[in-house]
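Progress against Task 2.4 (sequence-to-structure conversion) is shown through the following example record, which the project officer requested during the mid-term review.
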Amino acid sequence: MTSGAVSLLAREAVLAAFLVFCRVGGALMLMPGIGGRHIPMRVRVFLALALSFAFLPLVLDQVAPKVRTAGSGDFVFMIAGELLTGLLIGLLARLYVTALQFATSFIAQAVGVSPMPGASVEEDEQLPILATLIVFSATALIFVADLHLELVKGLVDSFARVPPGSLLAVRPALVDLVDQMSAVFLVAVRLCGPFILYSVMVNFAVGLINKFTPQIPVYFVATPFVTAGGLLLLYVSVEPLLSAFLVAFSQWLKAG
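Structure tokens generated for the chain above:
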């Protein structure tokens, strides 16, 4: 093999590896547990590089022909397509954590501990400390249950479903995004359903008592009891809540 052929193969391998890195890096930017602000940027870059080199032998036969026939302008479009595909995969996974944050923020408000601020696990915005605790527990359980390996497997399978180097089809991507948002909204409602019922019943009872005894500040008197009842309900339901979240997340991963 001549030196020119060797350099051509080396060029194809480098460009193919860069395209794989674009999709993997775009997905890791938004994936739950990995794309959070608590993971240093350098660690995420090295993790994306490691996964890209691990994926390259598996997808080289699919990526190399596209790189071989692509010009400079075509390669720019291929980079954009790989980045958008990776970002879409990461966003679809992150929506579940966003739904859990929404549900746990409502739970903290229903229990009466929402004024206690805490740092968010995944983002820069502040969350109630109760929501931070539950979201952190759910994120840890994702890794304990090896669901992060399913995410990695889904990334590998995405190269077969979405051909490397092709621009992301906007309409199917928007349909997938809307369907995912509908699914995670139902998951969020299901997770905080007991607390919705608790909040309605407690506020109705407090309002009714206040109507009969307007001379007594019933709301301020009842606040500690409302919080105690909400914490007791949380103690009973936190394990089924986390289990339901993991089941919904794992079902989405298996369904692809």
